[in-house]
Amino acid sequence: MRERYFARDNFIGTFPKIEYHYPMPETAVPITRPDTAEDQQTKSREDLDRGYLVICWDDPVNLMDYVTHVFQMVFGWANAQAEQHMLEVHNAGKSLLVRETFEKAEHYVHQLHGYGLQATMEREE
Amino acid sequence: MRFVPAHPTTASQVLRFQISRLEKALLLATVQIFPVLDSSYHRITKDPKNAAAAEQRLLEEAMERQKAEHKARLTDFLRAKAPVFQEVRDELYLNLTGEELEWLLQVLNDIRVGSWVQLGSPDTDAVRRASLTAEEARAVAAMDMSAYFQSGLLEAFR
Questions:
Q1: CATH tag for A61-125 (out of 3.10.290.10, 3.40.50.300, 3.30.1390.10, 2.60.120.1440)
Q2: CB atoms within 10 A of CB B105
């Protein structure tokens, strides 16, 4: 991507906040596990369906601010998240944006192309 | 060209840019060449095994449809009858809704990327060559003008 007017060397990534949850002894009661077989099956189906990766590829022509703006518009991301993905595209040559179902991935790729970005959908191996 | 933030007390949905007469003329001349980018530029996948013809065709058709809609809208914009350009005393302003701004950004980016493709998709610094044909020089100018106005419009989001 093309950098114009100012460098973004001072970008500081965000770190996920880790929360630890310890069981409270006084509230410990016997837990009856529900039958999770069906849930797991449903989850597996969802995981399988969401097996399409939307990837944005670097090019030397799209402006960095423009790419950040497009990610915000298409995915509704906050500026920091959009900028993080833009920098990944710029530095690593590509960024995995989302993992989605076929239809949603196709929808996102169409939107990104509408803005002139090089985005593809790839089947997850 | 410069973004004029709305007064905090104004609940204005319009994004306002102060623009000179020269910039207005350059903007209108730049967008006039839309569309530049060919629909075959858009690829749905990089994997040749999964390059499904149906999905690729759908993408190209969607892009052609979008360009046709943008072009129709551009015709109105070029007539400049709509109050997008407003003269207040001696100052000239470009007034855009958020949706109009997105549209204009897409039009300008089509021109920028399309001109770059016309030049053979070079590294952007490589286009500053000592010798350019007249056609190449036009493409370089279109790229630069598009970037200039894109950057100006994106000021509204900073």
A1: 3.30.1390.10
A2: 22
